[in-house]
Amino acid sequence: MTTTAARTTTAADTRGVSRWAAAIVLPLGPAAVAVLRFVLPYYTTDDTKAMAAKVIAEPGRGSAVLWFGCLAVLTLVPAAYAAGRLTRRRAPRLTLVALALLIPGYLALGWLVGEDQLLWSGAHAGLDAGTITRIAEAAHPTSAIAGVFFVLGHVLGTILLGVALWRSQVVARWAAVAVIVSQPIHFVAAVIIPNHPLDLVGWGLQAVGFAAVGWAILQLRNDEWDLPALP
């Protein structure tokens, strides 16, 4: 009876798989956004008509933005959750606040990618920049709300998560610093001094920091990562 129960528990133990899944997923989202921001055919500071005209001129880059945006939307929330699982025991309050900002912020990214979908679809359908602009500017108010959630959530949330990594000492100091400085660099490159290569560096630093978090997760024993499955 005991042997059978033990075998059932072992067979149902997927903690090793979940650790590997977390380690793989962690850097994918930030890396996808890093490339997205680098190939973006327009600057965030451009007006809607300029964005539409640039997507019409370079539809290939507009399409690449959508592919990488799709990957980011699918992986950023699981990545934040996985990182939070690593820091929550030693920095519970910081982790709670960081995830309360990051997860809604990352979920809101879907609305922003939807705007790029509209620009690309309009260009692909042969619409002129003026027509695409009128459609884009008639967007539902939830788009603006999602934009606020994304900007505040991912910038402040990433900084706080980086501080939680520093305080919990679950990764090397350089990895925590990479996460902390990544989004301030992105904010400068996106809003203050528009610069796609610098934006690549900002999000790239988060990807590297998150990769270090994934490596730390792989070093854990299953019992350190999660409770075993019930027989």
TrEMBL record:
Keywords: Membrane, Transmembrane, Transmembrane helix. This is DUF4386 family protein. It comes from the Bacteria. The keyword Membrane applies. The lineage of its organism: Bacteria, Bacillati, Actinomycetota, Actinomycetes, Propionibacteriales. It comes from Kribbella ginsengisoli. The chain crosses the membrane at residues 20-44, 64-82, 94-113, 144-166, 173-194, 200-218. The keyword Membrane applies.
